[in-house]
Amino acid sequence: MQPRHSETVGVKATLLLVSTLTVMAGATIAPSLPAMRQHFAEVPNADYWVRLVLTVPALFIALGAPIAGTIIDRFGRKRWLALSVFAYGLAGSSGFFLNDIGWILVGRLVLGLSVAGIMTTATTLVADYYLGAARAQFLGVQAAFMGLGGVLFLTLGGYLADLSWRFPFLIYVTAWLLLPLVLLVLPEPVRVSRAEALAMSAANPEPVPWALLGATFAIALLTQIVFYMIPVQIPFYLQQLSGATGSQSGLAIALATLAAASSSLSYQRLRARFTFTAIYALAFGLMGIGYVIIGQASSYGGVLVGLAIAGLGLGLFTPNMTVCLTSATPAALRGRILGGLTTSFFLGQFISPLVSQPLGQQLGLAATYGLAGGLMLLLGAITLGVMAHWRRLAQRQRLL
Predict the structure, then answer these.
(1) pLDDT tens figures, 354-399
(2) Hey, which end of the chain has fewer CB within 10 Å, N or C?
(3) How far apart are the first and last CA of the chain?
């Protein structure tokens, strides 16, 4: 049963604003990384530790998302979301006050757990409140709004990073402005008790499409490993290429996010005309072309072109995966399944520097971006091959 008032402007605005917090989780401080590395230059392995400050939240989002999904399926959505938003503001801003990189990493750990609660709960609430085309449309708007929020926070983070690497951490405190909205505006969906859910499942069993889950989670993992090379490595790449400042790096990353937002807004129109698989092929192709251009670029402007094209592809992935999963999986398991998707997303983000940093040191960042683009183009070709195989099977079945 859908809760009352889910169509009101207040509910929609609250869900969209809360969703922007997930974008802030890591990338907001990306422009600070070169200055932070310089500040902690005397710390052994400073390059790795500073990059982990950006990505360690992703590991704990990955670990915390399944737990958050289980909690909200059993005990409800709203209170867990409010607690997560409060912890987000507290842990996210801790980097402004702390002087030891180890304690900064602890604060980022707690930030990751809070984002796991926010992202899993917000997306599950969207699936609870809306059905069918309305759900697909809202998830596209949600992804776009996350992108637009990313543009704002990344741009602001870049300018603040020029003043001090600590200042971007203060942006996280803005989460507390949303607490009254979460508590007063969002309705708690009507939950079916565990016993009722088991009885309903026994009477009307809904099969879990394990193959679809596995494929979707794998796509989420791989695309985020590739995508997160942008916030993790682009500030260093641009500094090498053109001596870019923190604000210029922030604007570059924000451009990719803006492009992702624009393509997310077009998702519902694309979904009305194309299959999930066709949209995946298009997204892989755009990301691949964008990364190849980044790897071949010889100027700041060339990198911007590649980032914009890659962002167009990136913006199609999140709504496509979420709509596909929520359309094909049992409602009683929705929180846990979306928690699994969140885990895949952020595990990929955590793994990204562990893959790209050694490659960048051995091959150079330009070649590393080129390899990532080649991988995306290969996955796009494989996706097209799968589509052609399915068409042939369908034609044979019609002929029989």
Answers:
(1) 899 899 999 999 999 999 999 999 999 999 988 887 777 666 666 5
(2) C
(3) 42
DSSP symbols for 80-101:
HHHHHHHHHHHHHTHHHH---H
CB 164 within 8 A of CB 34: no
Sign (positive/negative) of CA torsion 188, 193, 196, 201?
A: positive
Locate 341 and state its tokens.
Answer: 């998707």
CA-to-CA distance for 286 and 295, rounded, in angstroms?
A: 14
Letter string b/e over residues 283-297, b meaning 16 or more CB atoms within 10 A of that residue's CB: bbbbbbbbbbbbbeb
In the numeric block, the tokens 């999963």 are attached to: 325
pTM: 0.76
Q: What are phi and psi of 112, to 5 degrees?
A: -60, -45
In tens, the pLDDT along 261-283 reads 889 888 888 988 998 999 999 99
How is residue 8 annotated by DSSP?
A: S
Residues 6 or more apart whose CB falls under 8 angstroms from that of 253 comprise: 27, 30, 31, 154, 158, 230, 231, 234, 235, 307
CB atoms within 10 A of CB 302: 15
The burial class, CB within 10 Å (0-12 / 13-18 / 19+), for 243 is: exposed
